[in-house]
Design brief:
The chain is α/β, with parallel strands linked by helices. The protein has one domain: Spore Coat Polysaccharide Biosynthesis Protein SpsA, Chain A, CATH 3.90.550. 36% of the residues lie in helices and 17% in strands. The protein has six helices and seven strands, in the order βαββαβαββαβαα. The mean pLDDT is 95.
């Protein structure tokens, strides 16, 4: 796996895998425990991939007092507020810890655990050229956002969790006076059908973190016919 240069910070935004608090759209039809098992497997894959590819990697976790193993990543709390407020807070914190001004920041969640590595490199290249780079999700949101500088406007006036996120992010980039590059869209995992689709995409993968994810999903108590 090609490692990103040290000029890129990757921040993973995640929830602690607590039943009833994660992947609630999977429960029902899954039990909250099985939904949490699916989420925990996705989180593990994302953290392992980021730790392998990133020179500077962070895990922004909620709730703030959660304890989670994240080898190779610096763990930092998200704090209070809606998602926009938490994104602004953590993004500013990571920018402030940079020892040099030149660089970029890449933010992802846990809903696209098999996002192609090429997207990370494409996003970094765009950001290092002074543009915001986004990988749209097929549901109207996005899987990844990269920025060449601190830009809290990117996370303001966004209706998180709705199909309007990507459209409003385009408007936010304009407010921040940053050109925006949209990379090829990718899948996220919110519903049981999305889980089944993820399993199919993982059928022939060889990347260790993704083969481990495939094994975890295969052993999960998913409905027949998946």
């Amino acid at each position: 796996m090609a490692q990103l240069p040290m000029d890129a910070d990757i921040i993973v935004f995640a929830k602690a895998p607590i039943p009833g608090r994660v992947k609630t759209r999977l429960s029902p039809p899954l039990t909250s425990e099985t939904a949490t098992t699916v989420y925990a497997a996705m989180l593990e894959a994302v953290l392992k991939r980021v730790a392998t590819m990133a020179g500077r990697a962070w895990l922004a976790i909620t709730p703030d007092d959660a304890t989670i193993e994240a080898r190779g990543l610096t763990v930092t709390p998200q704090g209070d507020g809606d998602l926009g407020a938490r994104l602004r807070r953590v993004s500013a914190r990571v920018w402030a810890k940079r020892e040099q001004s030149a660089g970029c920041q890449i933010i992802i969640g846990t809903d696209s655990p098999d996002l192609p590595i090429e997207r990370f490199h494409e996003a970094r290249e765009a950001a290092m050229e002074g543009r915001v780079a986004v990988v749209p999700a097929f549901d109207g949101g996005y899987c990844l956002i990269a920025s060449p500088r601190a830009a809290p406007e990117l996370f303001e006036a966004i209706e998180w969790g709705t199909p309007r996120v990507m459209r409003q992010t385009r408007q936010a980039a304009t407010r921040a006076n940053l050109p925006l590059t949209e990379l090829e869209p990718w899948h996220d995992v919110d519903t049981l059908d999305d889980v089944f689709a993820l399993r199919k995409r993982l059928a022939s993968v060889t990347e260790p973190a993704l083969t481990r994810l495939r094994e975890s999903l295969d052993s999960a108590k998913l409905p027949l016919g998946s």
